[in-house]
Design a protein that fits this description.
Largest sheet: 6 strands, mixed
Structural class: alpha+beta
Number of helices: 8
Shape: globular
Strand content: 15-25%
Number of strands: 6
Distance between the termini: 14 Å
Oligomer: single chain
Strand order of the largest sheet: 2-1-6-5-4-3
Helix content: 25-40%
Radius of gyration: 18 Å
Length: 215
């Protein structure tokens, strides 16, 4: 009944991203010369920028709005006592469970007791607060339609936790388009042993990832 295909969906998302970046730059420029706008090319965008672009499209938000109260409830400062100075083995076990059982790359269901309240989430071109990262991830992905696999094992020491992954992400939009990618996550620990930064990188370019879109 519908003649949609992977190329058409990929092109649509790509066009939306370009429009988003154009509007974002124009908006920042209008605020005055003191505002520095991003000049990185579209090919450097990764999943979190794709997320930011898509959630600004009104038609994609109609059925996915959450209240400010719900977002606030996700802040780690409202959760249980922090688990400071865990051994590498202990924190690796928690991160492993968050990924394998809770699929946190697609669900944002972290164990907040091992994250610092001011933890930052970093992609290749931008930085996000805990709340913004969680809110955006939950809006964009339908975790029930995708999967995240741990590749190898979680590695940890006193300074960081890291692992490789592969995943099929299902976008929370009509027809549930999916895309496949692989990458690495590095979680940096602070002086208390808590995770203070999250940095995810992809092995593929955004264009390559979009080319894998299917239904």
């Amino acid at each position: 009944m519908y003649s949609l295909n992977s190329f058409a969906v990929g092109s649509s998302i790509y066009t939306s991203l370009k429009q988003f970046e154009h509007k974002k730059t124009a908006r920042k420029t209008s605020m005055g010369p003191s505002v520095v706008c991003s000049t990185k090319p579209l090919r450097e965008l990764n999943r979190r920028t794709l997320l930011s672009a898509m959630v600004t499209i009104p038609t994609l938000l109609a059925s996915n709005r959450s209240s400010a109260q719900d977002c606030d409830s996700l802040h780690p400062s409202q959760c249980t006592k922090k688990l400071k100075n865990l051994s590498p083995e202990e924190i690796a076990a928690i991160v492993r469970e968050d990924l394998v059982k809770r699929q946190f790359l697609a669900t944002a269901n972290f164990s907040p007791e091992i994250y610092a309240d001011d933890c930052i989430f970093i992609d290749e071109i931008d930085t996000y607060s805990y709340k913004d990262f969680v809110k955006g991830t939950k809006k964009l992905f339908d975790a029930d339609q995708g999967y995240v696999n741990l590749v190898g094992d979680v590695e940890a020491d006193e300074n960081s936790v890291s692992f490789r992954f592969d995943e099929e992400l299902a976008f929370n939009v009509p027809f549930k388009p999916k895309t496949y990618l692989t990458g690495k996550l590095v979680l940096t620990r602070n002086a208390d042993g808590l995770i203070s930064s999250y940095k995810e990188t992809w092995d593929q370019s955004v264009g390559k990832v979009l080319s894998t879109i299917h239904f």
